[in-house]
Amino acid sequence: MQNLTINPQRLWDSLMETAQIGGTAKGGICRLTLTDLDKVVRDWFRGQCEALGCTVTVDQVGNMFAFKPGKRSDIEPIAIGSHLDTQPTGGKFDGVLGVLGGLEVLRTLHDLSYETNAPLMLVNWTNEEGSRFAPAMLGSGVYAGVFDRAFADSREDRQGVRFSDAIDGIGYRGDAAPGSVKFGAMFELHIEQGPILEAERKAIGVVTGVQGMRWYEVELTGREAHTGSTPMHLRANALLGAARVVEHVNRIALEHAPSAVGTVGLVEVTPNSRNVIPGHVFFTVDFRHPDDAVLDVMERKLMEAIPAVSNEIGLEPVAKKVWDSPAVKFDPDCIAAVRTGTERAGMPARDMVSGAGHDAAYIARVAPTTMIFVPCEGGLSHNEAESTTLEECAAGAQVLLNAVLEYDRRFGR
Ligand SMILES: [Zn+2]
């Protein structure tokens, strides 16, 4: 196989050029989905793809698919995809690197007139961030059949603007039915959004899956009473119960180290007064682990701990699971292609599981999929200071190119 090399400076220039679209004073990007700025970057993206001879199709939720023919027209394309929308105080690389890294792959192949066996398809997924319209990963979710189009259209932003009006407003409602633009596999290049690669001085994360996530809401009801005149043994202090459950959440996560994490991040105490024994506490629990079977065990331990703690103190507990996002295992063949692509590029790498959700997590339900991670400084993301170097971006795009070519070899005749 020919050794093709991407152009690091051209990739970097495109990252910096598009970072001006919604660029913030602190060096980040504020480019919320389906805004006028999103239209500007979408128009730019379409123009760049068409300049390479690609045909751009838009589906009814605004997902953009740039199609580059291959030697064979009888097989589905290999897709490369991520997102161009950002958080309100987003960085320059989250999502954008995956799309522009893919663009750099297409440009490299175009320059050398290199024809892959399978067609290629570069995808910009709508509303990955979920910051203007909840939930996150909406465009890829509709594509994968997780949500329907009517659900997407009905989403409202904080100003009461509906998704349907926003997408019509910028002219990016296409004709293609969601899911009708087929591809046979997808690779997503993304920054890690965590500190592991940087700490271990690895250039590439070979992503084997996305961890499962479960959210719970817990209410403990005790009895409000005077803090001065109520003896300790006659109290039903709901906050004391919550504190003990917080300890259990921490213990449960540590019992499944190093992959498990458990967090109580939101607590509401009623009446929240310094001289009233707390009568009611509401709090959340967030558990994550790459294996659903382990999450089942963690959940069972939590659901045992809550009544046990409540019994000790005399509280009435109510606990319910409010969100369950199953663990995702990426496709072994796609992962193998990334591994080979990484070796061919001579990059130090390690396997890892994504701690955050990505478009690839939904796409994995309908097509063989995997991801490639590159480091970001301090693990910082969803922050204007998000930082990845030219060399790190280039390494990711090179491995992306290598992986796509490796995967494409199976289609040779
Ligand atoms: Zn992202």
TrEMBL record:
Domain named Peptidase M20 dimerisation: residues: 209-306
Which keywords does this chain's UniProt record carry? Answer: Hydrolase
The record's GO molecular-function terms, alphabetically, read: hydrolase activity
Q: Which CDD domains match?
A: M20_bAS (cd03884)
Query: Which chain regions cross the lipid bilayer?
Result: none
InterPro entries according to UniProt = Amidase_Cbmase, Bact_exopeptidase_dim_dom, Peptidase_M20, Peptidase_M20_dimer
One Pfam family named in its UniProt record: M20_dimer
Q: Which domain of life is it from?
A: Bacteria
Q: Could you say which protein family the record assigns here?
A: Belongs to the peptidase M20 family.
The molecule here is called Zn-dependent hydrolase
- Name the species this protein comes from: Microvirga terricola
